[in-house]
Amino acid sequence: SRLAALRAANPALAHGAMHVRQAPGADTLFAFSRTERAERVEHLVVMNNGRSGSASAAVQPRRRSSAMRWA
């Protein structure tokens, strides 16, 4: 499946530390990021749990570090 391939290509999605993120003003959105220590990439995942087809919010990543990348 596409999800399995994505997880295999990005170890943080399967084994990284999970951090719940705030999605201000968007009660139907659930956001979290996964970071794997060796990979040093933050992957932000946002899911829409509402009945509408779309929703938007500004979700802040973890504190920026020169050693981190964002995917």
Your description of this structure?
This protein is of the alpha+beta class. The chain has two helices and four strands, in the order ααββββ. It has helices at 2-9, 11-15, and strands spanning 17-21, 29-35, 41-48, 69-70. It has a four-stranded mixed β-sheet. A hairpin with a 5-residue loop joins β2 (29-35) and β3. The protein starts with a helix and ends with a strand. 7% of the residues are buried. The mean pLDDT is 79.
Percent of residues in β-strands: 25-35%
Number of strands: 4
**Low-pLDDT residue intervals, each spanning 5 or more residues:** none
Helix content: 10-25%
Rg, Cα atoms, Å: 13 Å
Distance between the terminal alpha carbons, to the nearest Å? Answer: 20 Å
Chart the SSEs and their pairings:
Blueprint: H1 2-9, H2 11-15, E1 17-21, E2 29-35, E3 41-48, E4 69-70
Parallel strand pairs: 3-4
Antiparallel strand pairs: 1-2, 2-3
Give a brief outline of the structure.
The protein has 71 residues and is of the alpha+beta class. The protein contains 2 helices and 4 strands; from the N terminus they run ααββββ.
Observed structural traits:
71 residues; alpha+beta; 4-stranded mixed β-sheet; 4 strands
